[in-house]
User: Fold this.
Amino acid sequence: MSHKDQYGGAHTRLVHAARNEQGAAKDLVNPPVERASTVLFDKAEDLYAFKPGVRTYGRYGTATQNALCAAIAELECAAGVILTPSGLSACTLSLLAVSQKDGHMLISDSIYGPTRAFCDNILTKNGIEVEYFDPRAGAKLAEQCRDNTCAIFLESPGSLSLEVNDLPAIVDVAKKRDITTLIDNTWAAGWFLKPLTLGIDYSIQAATKYHTGHSDVLMGAIAARDKASATLMHEYARLMGNAASPDDAYLVLRGMRTMGVRLERQQDSALKIAQWFSGRDEVAQVLHPALPEHPDHELWKRDFTGASGLFSIILNPVSQDQLHAFIDALDLFGIGFSWGGYESLVIQCDPQIKRTARPWDAPGPLVRFSIGLEGVDDLIADIERALSVLNR
Assistant:
């Protein structure tokens, strides 16, 4: 008999979540990878019986995927979890699943660019009216709700400009009108924010990022708040032919065991670097919600238990050549999309910025940093040296 449920420490629960306690692999620390397409039945009469808990086909998951689902459910306080091949597919599948004929969807103006492109190019072609709202709308979002509003899609903080949504206020608006709420929770990774406990219906992860932690796997996850929401998403995923690789699921599950430790290290380093940036003449603004000067700091402090390693800065006006020279001069920061791995990354964000609810107004270019596991003093020294090119 296991007594693991009596332990409430977050790190302890993450390490022990979904560990195999029965069957042939009960003596292994990590569950083995199960690869399968065909599942065999003992008798012909069992083929269409569809008994609960009985596997019928590999697309519906093996023990490997089930273990990852159970671990993410533990992390997110969820009733059920769906795995998808990428973070973007988790966003798009969930949006389609909750859409309604001739429906209206409210989408945060700061959402991930590819998700926005899907809304503009696919949802609209399917007869869904998409309307963007100010990420800081909060309770005022009620003014944009209609009788046919079927979903509100959030991202908090926005992964470029770092606005924090007022989740309790938006949940209150949605519940009064029977509107489904979804959030891209990748920045906090389910570690620093538990949106399902605040009443959000679906928490979506790009497990590609912090869950995996090593920049070598693509994976998405949709966590549902209650059984009804989980059943709807499971059924839609089944009808869409959605499937995720068991090998990828194994790697994500392995990465999750150290996610808490990595996130807390990356949090500390990112905050130290953000505070250092705040004192630099080259920087007009630091966009990090854990800084007291951030416009949404009080919301962040209320709803989050910490901050991840992703933040942005707005530089004072510089030429495009100067900006490129600064980024190119960085030695320890790779130039590439994604974030959340063990390595530090940097990108210019301005080409990605698209706003319709409120104009994007910044004095200079927006630069995003993903802080990895390198020594924080080394990262600061690298940035300081690279900034010198702006002063030439």
Observations:
- The chain is about 35% helix and 15% strand.
- The chain has two domains: 4-256, 259-391.
- The radius of gyration is 22 Å.
